[in-house]
């Protein structure tokens, strides 16, 4: 049984609402325009909903491929023996195998759905026309899903990237505290995971920018932020490996203190440490943090 208190952490997100809108539009199209069962349209619309327009288009392309292949195979097998348990199972095997070989694995669900719809739900129509109608229904549903994603509460890459950058900054601060103050191992795995997440989001944003032909300056800033985060990860990884013997110069210690990372006095070396590996990686890491703060402020102040 679900704990009521734990359910409070779940929120009604935009993707949830957009999916509901896509379902409603699909039902209306099926009832008043197609004058047919809207089941295939509704399911296809739901399957095409993604977190961004770019992903919706990519998924939509995969779904179209799957729809056509599923329809062709379903039509061929249904001509031979509609509803056959053996042919239905064999068809699923062939679809999954072929789509995996072609690296179209995101098409598997919709291809199987269309294939099964043709093989198992023949309703008095000829095989040919039934396959054509189900294919049209599915393509309409895909179009509805993509259109809703594009027009209603469009996904904000900028906001998501800002949030991911905030998470990265918090993780960096936590790990600096571990390494410099407590000589504890840094959680490099969590930092790498957050870094990869930011990089993936940035790659999708780059495609989106290419589609819209704008926001090039913002993209450049965020690319520089990504490079700085990557450099911080590298420097922190080195410092983590020598945490037990880590000492820093007074200037770096002062900058760390401003980030609420207070080092023990004996770990602040007052003599010339300009050539030490500790100082190099510490100063470079702090320099990148300063650069990110400046670039991040520019991104947030830029009107989209």
UniProtKB/TrEMBL annotation:
Keyword Disulfide bond: no
Keyword list, A-Z: Cell membrane, Membrane, Transmembrane, Transmembrane helix
Pfam entry (one): ArAE_1
A single Gene Ontology CC term: plasma membrane
Keyword Aminoacyl-tRNA synthetase attributed: no
Primary localization class, coarse: membrane
Location(s), subcellular: Cell membrane
Transmembrane segments: 12-33, 86-102, 109-132, 138-157
Name of the protein described by the UniProt record: Aromatic acid exporter family protein
Organism in which the protein naturally occurs: Alkalibacter rhizosphaerae
Taxonomic lineage of the native organism: Bacteria, Bacillati, Bacillota, Clostridia, Eubacteriales
């Amino acid at each position: 049984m679900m704990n009521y208190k734990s359910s409070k952490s779940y929120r009604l997100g935009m993707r949830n609402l957009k999916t509901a809108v896509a379902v409603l539009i699909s039902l209306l199209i099926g009832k008043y325009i197609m004058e047919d069962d809207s089941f295939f349209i509704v399911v296809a619309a739901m399957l095409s909903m993604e977190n961004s327009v770019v992903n919706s288009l990519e998924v939509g392309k995969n779904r179209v491929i799957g729809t056509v292949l599923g329809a062709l195979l379903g039509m061929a097998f249904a001509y031979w023996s509609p509803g056959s348990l053996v042919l239905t199972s064999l068809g699923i095997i062939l679809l999954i195998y072929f789509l995996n070989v072609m690296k179209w694995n995101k098409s598997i669900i919709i291809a199987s759905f269309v294939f099964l719809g043709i093989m198992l739900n023949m309703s008095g129509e000829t095989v040919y026309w039934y396959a054509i109608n189900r294919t049209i229904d599915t393509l309409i549903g895909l179009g509805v899903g993509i259109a809703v994603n594009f027009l209603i509460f469009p996904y904000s890459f900028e906001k998501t990237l800002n949030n991911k950058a905030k998470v990265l900054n918090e993780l960096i601060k936590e790990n600096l505290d571990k390494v410099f103050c407590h000589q504890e191992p840094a959680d490099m795995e969590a930092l790498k995971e957050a870094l990869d997440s930011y990089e993936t989001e940035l790659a999708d944003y780059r495609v989106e920018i290419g589609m819209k032909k704008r926001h090039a300056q913002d993209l450049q800033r965020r690319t520089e932020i990504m490079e700085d985060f990557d450099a911080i990860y590298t420097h922190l990884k080195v410092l983590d490996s020598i945490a037990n013997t880590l000492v820093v110069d007074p200037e770096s210690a002062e900058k760390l203190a401003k980030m609420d990372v207070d080092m023990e006095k004996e770990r602040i070396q007052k003599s010339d440490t300009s050539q030490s590996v500790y100082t190099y990686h510490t100063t470079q890491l702090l320099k990148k943090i300063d650069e990110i703060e400046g670039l991040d402020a520019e991104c947030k102040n830029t009107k989209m």
